[in-house]
Amino acid sequence: MNFQNTRAFAQSLDAQDELKKYQTEFEFPQVNGKKTIYFTGNSLGLLPKSAKKYIDDVMNDWANLAVEGHFYAEKPWWDYHERFSAPLSKIVGAKPSEVSVMNTLTVNLHMMMVSFYNPTSTRFKIICEEKAFPSDQYMLQTQVKFHGLDPKDVIVEVKRREGEHNLRNEDIIAKINEVGSELALVLIGGINYYTGQVLDMEAITKAGHAVGAFVGWDLAHAAGNIELKLHDWNADFACWCSYKYMNAGPGSVSGYFVHEKHHNNKELHRFGGWYGHNKERRFLMEPEFTPNEGALGWQSSCTGVLAMAPYLASVEMFNEIGMDALIKKRNLITSYLEFIIEETAKETGTNLEVITPKNQSERGSQLSVILHGEGKELFHYLMKEGVIVDWREPAVIRLAPVPLYTSFEEMYEFGQILKKGIQTT
Ligand SMILES: *Cc1c(COP(=O)(O)O)cnc(C)c1O
């Protein structure tokens, strides 16, 4: 498509947008009495209006039924988490029995490490990405120390090549082959949070298995953003948070996936608890732990129903739309944003370098842009003008036009504000 940097052209794209009606189903923050242009749905998604009703229902059941709500609420609390299996499985490409929700992301990664990282004297290494999200680094380091090992001997980071912003899949695979029989686990972000690069999860998973390692994925930036086929890719496990693209609210519960091939493996360690215990027998208060079938057998505690409620509202909206329609709009709006950035760079004579891969299969919604020669005043200017972006030193902004609630006209408007900002700050 030949894009144009005009309001009329952007409006014509909005007129053809099949997801347009969803924009009014979200609450937007306001700046100067005007709806903001919200680019940080990759960090904290907007509030779906329907979430309020889901929370109110739980509050009302609590008020009216108290303890009886566990069994007699309209959506009973004791198995509320099971409502996620079917809709979430479609979003991450899994079987319903392979997914559930509990805890938060870093905690779930720790829980998965219990099952999938059991180092021996010969097989103990972990491959991860250089500069992974800090929580993942801390998680890995402390897990390794918990096993009495030194992170320096265990954690192998795959690095970017000199002068390149993105990782190469071939370099990750080469590193997997090099570590070979010493490799216990590969654990990487399916999308890099900083650059927005999508890795070739299928090929990396295959390479990890070929040398006898487990392969798990942190999908914080991937769930609800890109097409995932966790079952077919044969990933061993994956975890994601729900408050980024999935709009479930600050600190809401994390989703997790355990491949069905592991469901009956009694060798795998688990940190059990009563909610992981055989559901039919949960309230018999038996002394010995017998896990539920499927991913539900990795549960431990009862999960906060108030935290799950907005997530349920959100996954139901995702299912109504379907990932295909979301991805179709995502590709178009992200490409249009990229075009607007290129045009603004030309018009202002600035080097605005998009470091996210150009290839649509290697990116999701997010574009990360280096604003060469610009300083933090530009960020403050954008925020003051109601453009909510995320700033990382040195002069990188991350922009995520979220297909559910971002319009093409907002991309045009952003270009105009950015241009003014570059000229005046
Ligand atoms: C957002 C994010 C987290 C956050 O972890 P929480 O446990 O939910 O606080 C962790 N890892 C990655 C890669 C992230 O993007």
Automatic annotation (TrEMBL):
GO cellular component: cytoplasm
Record-level GO BP terms: anthranilate metabolic process; L-kynurenine catabolic process; L-tryptophan catabolic process to kynurenine; NAD+ biosynthetic process; quinolinate biosynthetic process
Binding-site positions, pyridoxal 5'-phosphate: L105, T106, F133, P134, S135, D136, D218, H221, Y243, W274
Top-level class of the enzyme under EC nomenclature: hydrolase
Gene3D superfamilies tied to this protein: Aspartate Aminotransferase, domain 1 (3.90.1150.10), Type I PLP-dependent aspartate aminotransferase-like (Major domain) (3.40.640.10)
Pfam families in the record: KYNU_C (PF22580)
Cofactor: pyridoxal 5'-phosphate
Record GO terms (molecular function): kynureninase activity; pyridoxal phosphate binding
Entry EC number(s): 3.7.1.3
Pathway in which the depicted protein is active: Amino-acid degradation; L-kynurenine degradation; L-alanine and anthranilate from L-kynurenine: step 1/1; Cofactor biosynthesis; NAD(+) biosynthesis; quinolinate from L-kynurenine: step 2/3
Function: Catalyzes the cleavage of L-kynurenine (L-Kyn) and L-3-hydroxykynurenine (L-3OHKyn) into anthranilic acid (AA) and 3-hydroxyanthranilic acid (3-OHAA), respectively.
Quaternary structure note: Homodimer.
Protein family: Belongs to the kynureninase family.
Name of this protein: Kynureninase
